[in-house]
Amino acid sequence: MSAVTDTVRVAPAANPVSQSIRDSLVVAKRNLIRMSRIPEMIIYGLIQPIMFVVLFTYVFGGSMQIGGSTSAVDYKNFLMAGIFAQTVTFATASSGAGIADDMHKGLIDRFRSLPMARGAVLTGRTLADSVQTALTLVVLAVVALLVGWRVGSDGDTNLGKVLGAFGLLLLLGYAFTWIGALIGMSVRTPEAATSSGLIWLFPVTFISNAFVDTSHMTPWLRHIAEWNPFSATVQACRVLFANPGQSQSDAWPMQHPVWASLIYSILILVVFRTLAVRKYRSATA
Amino acid sequence: MPGAIYAEGLVKTFGDVKALDGVDLDVPEGTVLGLLGPNGAGKTTTVRCLTTLLRPDSGRAVVAGIDVLEQPDAVRRSIGLSGQFAAVDEYLTGRENLQMVGQLYQMRAKAAKERAAELLEQFHLADAADRPTKTYSGGMRRRLDLAAALVVSPPVMFMDEPTTGLDPRNRQQLWEVIKQLVSGGTTLLLTTQYLEEADHLAHDIAVVDHGRVIAKGTADQLKARTGGERVEVVVHEREHIQAAAEVLAGFGKGDTTVEEHMRKLTAPVTGGAKLLAEVIRELDTRGIEIDDIGLRRPTLDDVFLSLTGHVAEAKNEENDKEAAK
Ligand SMILES: Nc1ncnc2c1ncn2[C@@H]1O[C@H](COP(=O)(O)OP(=O)(O)OP(=O)(O)O)[C@@H](O)[C@H]1O
Ligand SMILES: [Mg+2]
User: Fold this and answer.
1) Residue range A12-23: mean pLDDT, rounded
2) B215 and B111 in one domain?
C-alpha cells in the first residue's frame, strides 16, 4: 500500500476571499430568484409588521405613558423604532426555514460536494434575507409615515442620521439571520426551524424598550431590558430619528446606544456565523 | 498505482448502527465499479464518505489521487456527484439550476451558461429548460440532477442509484451517456438496485452487505461462484411432475428442485445445448408434455440472493437462538 501515499497535491483555488464573495453572491442570487417566485412569502412578511403598526398605534396609543406623556402622537413616534427593530429580527425565522429546507431536500449535500467556499451557502442565504428585510423596511417606513410617524418630532435630526438608523437596523437583522442559520442547520425540518426561529424572538423583543417605557418595569426586568442587545438598537434609532421616549437610564447601552448597537450586532454576527459555518462543515443530513 | 477511487478499511458508525464495517475498494482509472447491496447495506454511506460529505470514523480514502480526509477541497474539484435523491432547487428553472452549479464549480458565468444549454440538450430537457423544476416529473428531476453532476466532466464520478425512477427509454439513454463518459476516461462508481444495470455497465462489481464488501469480481466471475447452468422444465400436467423429476435426476449434477404450484422443475447440469436436446427427447419418449423448457445461466439476481440471502439467514438464526434463551 506504499504507492497509495504519493497522492496528488492540488493547488488551492486562486484567492479564497474573492472566491468566497463570488460564491456567496451566486447563492444569494439563487435565493432571491426563489423568493421572487414565492411572492406570498414576501406578502405575509409585510402584512405582519404593517398590522403591528396599525394595531399598536390605534389600540395602545393614548393609554401608554411615554416619558411622562400619554399623548397618542408621542406613542406613535415612540413606537416605530421598536416595530422596525422587531421586523428586522423576523428574518431569523426565514433564514432558518430556508436553510433547514435546503438540508431536508438534499441541496446542502449537493453544495457540500462542490468546490465552493465553505461559508457561501449560508452567507448567500443571509444576504438574500437581508435584501428582503430592506424591502420590508422601505414599505414599513412608508406605512409609518402614512399613519403619522415623523422623524425629528423630539429634537433635531438629519438625513445622514436617519439613514444611519436604518443601517443599524439592517445590521441587527443581518446578525440575527445568522442565529437563524444556526437554527436551520440544527433542526430537522423547515417547520421546526420556523417555530424555533420565532418563539424566542417574542421574549427578546418584548422584554425591551421597543413597545413600552422601561422605567415602569420592575427593577430586575428593567435591568434585562436595558442590557438587551435588541434594546440598544431601538434606543439608537430613537436617538437618530429624534423620536420621543428615549431611555434616561444610566445603563451603558442606553447612554451609548449607537456604539452598543454596533458592538452587539457585530458580536452576534461573528459568534453565530462561526458556529453556523462550523455546523455546516460537519453537517450530515 | 492505486485506482482512481481507493478505499481502505472505511468504518462509520451512527449511534449503535455500524453503517460501514471496513469497506475496501479499488477502482482502476477509466473503469466502472458497480456497488450492489440490499437496502441499508451501506452503499450511500460509502458514497458519502468518498465524496467528502461524511467523515469516516477510521480508514482512508483516495479519490483522483487525492487524499479525501486531508484535502477534501481538492477532491471536490475533481468529482461529480449525483446523490440517491435528486438535489435540485424546485423554484429555479432547470437552466438556472445548472448555471448555478457551473458557477459554483468556479466556471465563468458565460461558460456556465453555455454548458447548461449543452447539458439540457443532451438530457432531453431543452423543452422544459425554462420552467421551475417544481413542475418536472420525477424522472426529469433525476436527469437534471445527473446533468448537474456532469457540469465540469470531472475525472471521477459518483452516482447513487442513478436510474431509479427512470423509464426504460431514459434508462437506456443514461446508459449511453455513461458509456460515452467512461470511454472518455472517466472513472465511475455507481450504486444500483438493478443487477441488469451493473451487468451492463460495470467492469467490476462489489457486493456490499452489513457495511462490508462480501464479494467482488466481474459479473461473470460472480455468476460462476454462484454455480453453473441449470435446466428448467415446466410440465403441462401436475401428474407428470414425478416422472419429469426422474428424467432430470438422470441428467442432473445435483438435486432437482420442484415448485409444485408452478409445475416447475430445476436441475443443475453441465453440457449445454446438446444436453438440453437430449432431455427434450427423453421427456418426449416418456410422453411427458411440457409447456416450457430452457437452459438458465445464473443471473446477477441469483448472485445477489445467494450472497446476501445467506448472510441474512445466518443473522436470523442467531436472533432465533437469542430469542430461545
Ligand atoms: N445519518 C444517519 N443516521 C443514522 N443512521 C444512518 C444514517 N445514514 C445511514 N444510516 C444507517 O446506516 C445504514 C446504511 O445506510 P445506507 O444509506 O448507506 O444504505 P444503502 O445501502 O444506501 O441503502 P438503500 O439501498 O436503501 O439506499 C442503515 O442502517 C442506515 O439506517
Ligand atoms: Mg442508498
Assistant:
1) 82
2) yes
Q: Which of A1, A10, A23 comes nearest B71 by C-beta?
A: A10
Number of domains composing chain A: 1
Element (H, E) at A87: helix A72-89
Ligand 1 nearest-atom number relative to CA B46: 18
Q: What three-state secondary structure class fits B234?
A: strand
State the residue range of the domain holding B161.
5-222
Question: A2 lies in a domain?
Answer: no
A279–B contact, CB cutoff 8 A: no
How do residues A41-87 score in pLDDT, each as one tens digit?
888 888 988 998 888 888 887 778 787 777 888 889 999 999 999 99
For chain B, give the percent of residues with pLDDT over 70.
94
ipTM of this predicted structure: 0.86
pLDDT at position B167 is 86
Does the residue A12 lie in any domain? no
CA of A122 to the centre of ligand 2 (A): 27
Going from the C-alpha of B15 to that of each of B18, B44, B151, B177, the distances in angstroms are 8, 17, 36, 39
Whole-angstrom Cα distance, residue B283 to residue B235? 10
In terms of Cβ atoms closer than 10 Å to its own Cβ (0-12, 13-18, 19+), residue A52 is middle
Mean pLDDT, chain B, rounded, equals 87
pLDDT, averaged across chain A: 89
Whether residue A196 is contained in a domain is answered as: yes
Average pLDDT, integer, range A219-223? 94
Give the DSSP letter of residue B287: T
State which H helix or E strand residue B207 sits in.
Answer: strand B204-209
Residue A205 lies in a domain: yes
Sole residue written with cell 433542526:
A187
| Cell of residue B288, nine digits | 411427458
Q: Report yes or no on B26 lying in a domain.
A: yes
Beta pairing class for B156-160 and B79-82 = parallel
Lowest mean pLDDT among A187-191, A260-264, B89-93: A187-191
Residue B8 belongs to what H/E stretch?
strand B5-14
Ligand 1 atom with the shortest distance to the CA of A285: 1
In angstroms, rounded to a whole number, what is the distance separating the alpha carbons of residues A54 and B57?
Answer: 57
Q: How far apart are the first and last CA of chain B?
A: 51
Q: How far apart are CA A33 and CA A37, in angstroms?
A: 6
Q: Beta-carbon neighbour count of residue B91 at 10 Å?
A: 18
Torsion A278-B64-B69-B71 (CA) sign: negative
Alpha-carbon dihedral angle through residues A51, A52, A57, A59, given to the nearest 10 degrees: 90
Ligand nearest to the CA of B37: 1
Give the Cα separation of B145 and B101 in Å (integer): 10
Q: A133 - beta bridge partners?
A: none
Please indicate whether residue B183, judged by its CB atom, sits closer than 6 Å to ligand 1.
no
**Phi and psi at residue A113, in whole multiples of 5°?**
-90, -5
DSSP secondary-structure letter at A3?
G
With a 6 Å cutoff on the Cβ, whether B85 touches ligand 1 is no
List phi, psi (to 5°) of B32: -115, 130
Q: Least CA distance to B63: which residue of chain A?
A: A7
